[in-house]
Each structure stands twice: as C-alpha cells, then as structure tokens.
From TrEMBL:
Gene3D superfamilies: Glycosidases. It comes from Hymenobacter guriensis. Transmembrane segments: none annotated. It comes from the Bacteria. This is Family 1 glycosylhydrolase. InterPro entries: GH, Glyco_hydro_1, Glycosyl_Hydrolase_39. SUPFAM superfamilies: (Trans)glycosidases.
C-alpha cells in the first residue's frame, strides 16, 4: 500500500453507569448500532474512510475474570477484516462491567490487562488500539464531578480513579505488545485549557492547567511538577505507585491523540468554579502545548459540533478544525490523522450522559436514520481532496501501519518479528515508514 494520512471517524461506544450504578448508558444501543452495524460499516466505506475508532461493548463482552462473550465482537470484527477497515480499538470507553464495580476497584488494572490480551489473541490482525478512552475525563467525571460510575466528588476519588485507569492502560499496552509487538497505541485524550477570569483566579487556573496533564504524564512516564506530586500523594497515590508509572515507559509505541471541542476551554473563577468559555485559543494553540510537553506524533482524535438551524454550523466547524490541523502541521508538528466523531448522531451527550432523556444530539456525519448530513458530505469531499496530497509533503506523516488485509504478508510478519526484538528501542518524531511500497503478499 502507499502512504496515507489517517482520516477516521468513530462509532460512539460509551457505557458508563449513572444513578449509583442502577442505570447503564449504552450509546451503541441508543444510537442503533447493534441493529444497524452492517449499514454503519457501509457508511464508513461510502465516505472513503479506512480507519475507524471502534470497540466491543466492555460491559457485555467482559463477563467475569477470564470469561468473555465474543459473540458480537466476532461478527463485527470479522466484517471489518473483510472490508479491510483498520479499527483503532477502543477497549474501555467510560464504563466497566457491573461485576467489576467502578474505577475505585484496585483489581481493575490487572483484570483489564488480561481482557486486552485476550482480545489481541482473538483478533491478531488488529494493530491500532486506544486501550482506555479519555483517561482524564473518565477519572474527572467519575471521581471528581460525581457524574458517572462511582459518582464521587473528591480529590481522593479522582486520584484513585486516575491511578487505576492509567495503570490499566499501561498494563494493557504491555499485554497487547506480548501478542502484537508492532501494535500502535493512539491515546485519545481531551486537550483542555483553563482561563483565569480575574487575577484572583490565576492560582486555581494554574492548578487546573497542571492537573489536565496528569493522565498523559503518568501514561508516558513524564515527571509531574512538585505541586502535582504533592497533590497525588496527598490524595491516595503512594510513592511506589508513582514510581510504577515512571519505570514503565511505552511512549515509543504511542501516537498522542488530542480531542478538541468548543467545551474544552474553561473560564475559572476565584473560588475554583468553572464554566465553558467557548473557543478562545483553539486546537492549534492547545495542541502545541501538549506536543511541546510530550514530543510525540499527533492525531486529532475527536471533534464535532451540532448541526444548527442554518445547517452549515458543523460544516464550518469541520473546516475550522481542519485548518487548525494544517496550521499545526505546517509549524513542524508531525500530525498523522484527523477524526470527526462520530459516524452517526449521538444521544444525551448534551447532559454529558448524566441524564437518560433520549435527546438527539445532531453531531454525526449521518443522522440516526443513516441519512448523510451536510458535514458528512463535506468530510467525504475533504478526504477526497486531501488524501493523496498530505503524505507526499513530509516524512513525519508516515506511520508503520499494517492494514487488516496485509496481516499475513511476509513484510508485515517481518515487521512484527523486528519489533518483538526491539521493544525497548527508542524513537524520534520521524516515525518509521507507513506499511511498505511493495505491500502485495508473495
């Protein structure tokens, strides 16, 4: 295969619990994917997309320690393989099975890593993974805001959820690499910024701007600043737990996925309360902050906007975000992909899934009747226009992707063997070539 930019979409598979565990919010059910999954994959191909953020529902697939129900995953992933669509497999999206409880459970990291390994063994042709989606958001909404799962509202609840979630992500990466040594991990993480409303709000805003990096700092083995170190230890993280993250670095297998929505920027009051500020800095400025910290290839892994009364609001946002991606790239940051999230409209995200109202959120490339929206047509055209242009312009836009149909090719097998021997090898921002110019199997 030739070189290509990773244009993607996603199928929303959030499944947190609310009402103190009494209700499960299953977006795959609400958006009709269980019924229309074949049609949804048709739509992905209709758009000219070859990369899909997608994963099986954890709460119905992981049925007990060492016990898995692969019935839905088997039929859907076999169909993705047949279509040669490369999934970026989202193994945990905001919720865990009832038997695991919630993210305060210290057994979660090891058990989740076992699940990740079992998945990789069952689907060895899968290369791209997001083990745990938006770790910072998941810990914040579950342990600090009191919205989901454990519904705690404390710093200790947040730190406990965070350390378990990130440790689970790290252990899952290690487990997957045992099966697929050339696996690539795309961290889909919310990129945030907190603006001080007045001078009295500068300190709480600075604290929040340090806290927003905690999930990726721990995941990548990046030392936190002294204030955040004290914060972690004061709220339930031990020195040994912190050292675990510093000593288990898998950064060289990762692409940093940055999610950006209008709600990702916040205005902070002197008392530490926040509200959405709308877009002020934008994706370009905030992504530079994250890249300057981690120096990893970047993918814009989520964005969307409601289609409003004029019908062009989402289209205009798509072009604005794409312009930001090009600006970041032209500044020398190795940007390897872009995602409109999600394929179809969503349900109840206007309340951050806190309420089970059944309210339609018109943010998809298609509506829930699977009719294309204006932003879907615009994205299809954008992909067609840019797909063959971007890869020729920078060697930083090359990723060692093995498409599903190439899994058994000799060169792909050799790549896995080479990676198995060099798991600890360092990397630089100019990542190795995407696939192989002579990708046909012998």
């Amino acid at each position: 295969m030739g070189l290509q930019f990773l244009f993607a979409t996603g199928i929303e598979n959030s499944n947190p619990t609310i009402d103190h565990g009494k209700q499960r919010v299953d977006e795959l059910e609400k958006c009709g994917h269980y019924k229309h999954w074949q049609k949804d994959f048709d739509l992905v191909q209709e758009l000219g997309i070859r990369f899909l953020r997608y994963g099986p529902p954890l709460h119905t697939t992981f049925v007990g320690p060492g016990k898995y129900d692969w019935s839905f995953a088997d039929v859907t992933f076999q169909d993705l393989l047949r279509r040669d669509i490369a999934p970026m497999v989202d193994l945990c999206h905001f919720g865990v099975p009832d038997w695991l409880g919630n993210f305060q459970n210290p057994d979660f990291p090891v058990l989740f890593a076992q699940y990740a390994k079992a998945f990789a063994q069952r689907f060895p042709w899968v290369q791209l993974y997001t083990p745990i989606n938006e770790m910072y958001v998941c810990a914040t909404f579950s342990g600090l805001y009191g919205w989901w799962n454990e519904q705690l509202s404390s710093d200790q609840g947040f730190v406990t959820a965070l350390k378990h979630i990130v440790k689970a992500n790290v252990l899952a990466m290690q487990a997957i690499l045992e099966v697929r040594p050339d696996a690539i991990f795309v961290q889909s993480e919310s990129s945030e910024y907190y603006h001080a409303k007045n001078p009295a709000a500068i300190k709480p805003a600075e604290e929040m701007n340090a806290k927003r990096f905690l999930s990726l700092d721990l995941n990548y083995g990046q030392r936190v600043n002294s204030e955040m170190y004290e914060y972690l230890l004061d709220n339930g993280m031990s020195r040994d737990e912190y050292h675990f993250f510093m000593h288990n670095k898998l950064k060289h297998h990762c692409i940093m996925g940055n999610d950006y929505y209008k709600t990702n920027e916040h205005r902070v009051d002197a008392n530490g309360s926040t509200r959405a500020s709308g877009e002020i800095f934008g994706y370009h400025a905030i992504t530079h902050q994250y890249y300057d910290r981690y120096h990893l290839p970047v993918m814009h892994t989520e964005t969307n906007l409601w289609q409003g009364p004029n019908g062009d609001e989402a289209v205009n946002w798509l072009h604005k975000e794409w312009a930001n991606v090009l600006r970041v790239r032209n500044d020398g940051v190795p940007v390897v992909g872009f995602t409109w999230y999600s394929l179809t409209d969503q349900v109840d995200w206007d309340s951050a899934l806190r309420e089970n109202n059944g309210r339609l959120n018109p943010v998809g490339l298609y509506d829930l009747d699977r009719n294309i929206r204006p932003v879907g047509a615009a994205y299809k055209q954008l992909i067609s226009d840019w797909n063959q242009v971007l890869p020729t312009q920078s060697m930083c836009l090359q990723v060692p992707i093995v498409m599903p149909s190439e899994h058994n090719c000799g060169w792909a097998q050799k790549q896995r063997e080479d990676r198995s021997e060099k798991l600890a090898a360092p990397t630089c921002c100019a990542v190795p070539p995407l696939g192989n110019e002579n990708a046909a199997c012998a």
